[in-house]
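User: structure tokens for Molybdate-binding periplasmic protein, please.
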Amino acid sequence: MRKIILGLALLCSSIFAGTINIAVAANVSYAINDLIAEFNKTNPDTKVQVTLGSSGKFTTQIINGAPFDIFMSADMKFPETLDNQGLSSTKPVIYAQGSLAMLSSKKLDLSKGLNLLTDKNIIRVAIANPKTAPYGTASVEAFKNAKLFEKVEPKLIYAESISQAVTYALTAAEVGFIAKSSLYDEKMSQYKEDIDWVSVDPSLYTPIDQGIIILNRAKDNKEAKAFYDFILGDKAKKIFVDFGYLVK
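Assistant: Done. Predicted tokens:
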């Protein structure tokens, strides 16, 4: 009898276990492994398949039928676009707030803040593409509010995502504007605050509210709902805070 019960349990487990496909904004790439590891402590049979990229490109792909179950965007605009088109089974909800940092490997005087960008020795400034990446939009907004955009614009080089902006900031440019969360990744521990990077004054750009939705194809997917609830729960919030995000 115990063998039969055990066999039924394993069968049920295999029926409800599966893979959920998640489109994740590139800035969350540094925290996503910790988030999945924590989620799997209580959902060990669920495989979370992650695709990383820019929120704008994901939005286009989802409109064109890309088979994602959950979309974790770098802002609220793109999830709202999908919801307005009837492609979401949940209303967009904020899961974390991101912030900008200015990074350089060139040992510059970062205490000058954005005014540093007008220095003649600053030839290239890396940001994420503002057309597809909310952190790029926030960077441009900061430059404009600091009355520096006209001077900085000729120096801008555009990365396809915020993670690529990190690479550009450390290689192809003298300075780059990145998601602050990336600096809390273990691989970035050699870069120190006030030496290699500084936070950008948050009053210079609109708060980066990052939104999550469950897409229609996963409307009745219990595993997708479990992951969605986890991301909005206290355990995930702690991980987001550990990676430099703000949470409500």
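User: Anything notable?

Assistant: The chain is about 35% helix and 20% strand.
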